[in-house]
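hey
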């Protein structure tokens, strides 16, 4: 026999909630625990962090992937969310976070393993294979997966010369340095670039987040931290650590636009002469740079607008004008 009798499949990792949903007693335990209602509420809550939404998606997907978990007679999922599949389909095609789009696509594949899930996906306009072990679901119109809302800039703009000085945001200069703890957070983020001080700085940041979590939920403080990440050399693990620190900060398009463009004049004159950007920095030099950044009378902090740059994403970069050269 030259060809295999069936397509190879990868065993699905076991999930605690998914295993409970395979039996009547397990479904009764899940129904009495109230956890399903909490997961559905987290999935539909617009203020929930992406990590919480992904956890809810995977759990509901494993429950919905079983025949007992998605049967209408068991009233396990449908009693809390009769539009669960429609909600996940909407996230897979319209969510602004691409990571949640990908998770939703995989979760719909899990739901396709159950008979009731296949019917719900078929009604939603999605195609599923006959083999329940395939765990794949795709829309009838695949183009819907790649639709992205057109980003309209506040004003028409061309490519910007990196030597030009972008518009100044006095609001950011004043509000980013309100407390000594905010200054300490930025200093510790700077110390993460050095392998000598990285471990101690990471431990200090974890302690500060445990005692003052509200400081890491502020949008302007998160932008100030991105200022340093954008200008100096960091290892990927250090960058990921900083991203996780500010995971609850509101960095949506609406929040960034309302902050960056409120009361600002986008047209600024270009400074004379070019500027050289330092590719790396030592710990003492970076500390002094941050101190300079925190003094509004001696240095200016600027925010670069989102531009259409070839081969790059449309991202808002935060930089420092004079303190970083």
């Amino acid at each position: 026999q030259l060809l295999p009798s069936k397509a190879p499949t990868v065993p699905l990792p076991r999930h605690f909630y998914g295993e409970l949903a395979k039996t009547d007693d397990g479904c009764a335990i899940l129904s009495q625990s109230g956890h399903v209602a909490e997961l559905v509420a987290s999935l539909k809550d617009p203020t929930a962090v992406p990590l919480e939404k992904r956890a809810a998606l995977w759990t509901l997907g494993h429950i919905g992937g079983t025949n007992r978990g998605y049967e209408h007679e068991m009233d396990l999922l449908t009693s809390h969310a009769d539009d669960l599949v429609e909600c996940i389909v909407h996230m897979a095609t319209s969510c602004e976070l691409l990571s949640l789009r990908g998770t939703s696509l995989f979760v719909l594949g899990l739901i396709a393993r159950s008979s009731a899930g296949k019917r719900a996906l078929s009604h939603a306009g999605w195609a599923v294979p006959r083999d329940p072990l395939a765990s794949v679901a795709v829309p009838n119109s695949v183009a819907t997966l790649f639709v992205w809302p057109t980003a309209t800039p506040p004003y028409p703009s061309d490519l910007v010369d990196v030597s030009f000085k972008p518009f100044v945001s006095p609001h950011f200069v004043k509000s980013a340095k309100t407390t000594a703890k905010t200054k300490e957070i930025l200093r510790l983020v700077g110390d993460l670039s050095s392998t000598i001080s990285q471990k101690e700085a990471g431990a200090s940041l974890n302690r500060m987040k445990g005692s003052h979590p509200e400081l890491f939920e502020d949008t302007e403080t998160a932008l100030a931290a991105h200022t340093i990440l954008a200008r100096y050399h960091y290892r990927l693990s250090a960058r990921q650590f900083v991203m996780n620190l500010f995971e609850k900060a509101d960095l949506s398009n609406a929040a960034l636009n309302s902050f960056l463009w409120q009361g600002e004049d986008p047209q600024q004159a270009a400074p004379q002469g070019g500027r050289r950007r330092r590719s790396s920095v030592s710990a003492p030099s970076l500390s002094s740079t941050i101190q300079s950044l925190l003094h509004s009378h001696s240095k200016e902090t600027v925010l670069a607008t989102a531009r259409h740059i070839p081969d790059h994403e449309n991202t808002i970069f935060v930089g420092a004008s004079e303190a970083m050269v």
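Residues 159-173, 265-290, 292-325 have pLDDT under 50 and may be disordered. Residues 170-320 form one domain.
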